[in-house]
Amino acid sequence: MSELNNIALKIIENGKGILAADESTSTMTKRLDSVNVPSTPENRLIFRETLFTSSSMTDCIGGVILYDETIKQISSKKKKITELISEMGSLPGIKVDTGAKVLAGSKDEKITEGLDGLRERLKEYYKIGVKFTKWRGVYLISKDYPSKLSINSNAHALARYSALVQECNMVPIVEPEVLMDGEHSAEDCYKKTSKVIERCFEELILHKVDLKGIILKPNMILPGNKSKNKISNDEVARLTLKCLKNCVPSEVPGIAFLSGGQSEIEATENLNLINKHNDTNFIMSYSYGRALQQSALKFWSKDIKNIEGTQKIFNHRAKMNTLAAQGKWSKDFEI
After folding, report:
1. Annotated catalytic residue: which of 191, 217, 230, 242?
2. Domain locations along the chain
3. Per-residue pLDDT tens for 84-125?
């Protein structure tokens, strides 16, 4: 078993998942504005450190995706953030793309940038203890989208990124996110997500990426958020599994879903049903941002010094998702 495969498995084995705490400063500012907390570097760190020192980091969270600002901050215990996370038994990771920009040739679509200078940045991150990285490609769904240009360009970028990351002995998280914005049906999401994932793996293989040393971070198969054609949670699980079975090579050790605009309970329930029906060898876990943090953030905003109370809320959400990653969750367990 390769070292990269060991790292990938350590992150998502035994129901553990990933805390996506890699919101950019502008995104984190929106989150803090929404709960009336000033977005200062200190406040951003206080909230994140509250999560990083909670007991569920040991029991439920196998990896944390950080943002460049956070990874360079020093905790209140005078420790580097990477050390703090490692001591809790979790692995530190980092978002390395520089964001989605307008795709030349298709002005409504996006291409993710950040390949220039990436090799050098990766070496620096590796030196400070980073074990895995993340890069997100985003795709619109409509009658005309995602275009072939968007599918091919983002797949190529994800593959080049992954090859560079593995060259530096870290595990790449490959995140092709087909957005849930729109009026599309779940069937349309299924067809277009399948095309996106298939093309990503064609490029990963072409770039000689070791598929045993990656984690795929896809969207679930859902109707658009403005769609009139809603489907059951069971159908979400069935279509998601069908898509992944058909499109993901068997060498890939695991899949950590993004929550993509679902509520906390929806993201947990859908993950649970996916695992109840999972007849593949893939580990199916979670890599959630808002769906892990939102309740904790709302509670924390009322008194940012109430660390223990905030951690209790976060620990509950992490525990629920870890149960769901094992197909053992029930609504009865919710507070």
Report:
1. 217
2. 3-333
3. 999 999 999 999 999 999 999 999 999 999 999 999 999 999
Q: How far is CA 197 from the centre of its chain?
A: 15
CB 243 within 8 A of CB 280: no
Question: How many other CB atoms are there within 10 angstroms of residue 145's CB atom?
Answer: 19
Please name the residue that has the structure tokens 């993710």. Answer: 112
User: Distance between CA atoms of 331 and 182, rounded to whole angstroms?
Assistant: 29
Q: 228: which DSSP letter?
A: S
Q: Which alpha helices (H) appear in the chain, and where do they start and end?
A: 3-12, 25-34, 41-52, 56-59, 68-71, 81-87, 118-127, 148-167, 186-206, 233-247, 264-277, 290-302, 307-324
Under a CB-based contact definition with an 8 Å cutoff, are residues 268 and 321 in contact? yes
- Say what the pTM is: 0.96
Listed residue (56, 72, 67) closest to 29, CA to CA: 67
Mean pLDDT score, 279-307: 96
Mean pLDDT over all residues of the chain? 96
Handedness of CA 125, 130, 134, 41 (dihedral sign): negative
SS3 letters across 236-284:
HHHHHHHHHHHHCCCCCCEEEECCCCCCHHHHHHHHHHHHHHCCCCCEE
Enter the DSSP assignment of 74.
B
pLDDT of 335 over the 80 cut: no
Q: How far apart are CA 36 and CA 27, in angstroms?
A: 14
Q: Is 217 a catalytic residue?
A: yes
Provide the residue type at 94 as one letter: I
The predicted structure's pLDDT at residue 77: 87
Look at residue 231 in the predicted model and tell me its pLDDT. 94
Bridge partners of 102?
110
CATH architecture of 3-333: Alpha-Beta Barrel (3.20)
Using one digit for the tens of pLDDT, what is the confidence trace for 177-210?
999 999 999 999 999 999 999 999 999 999 999 9
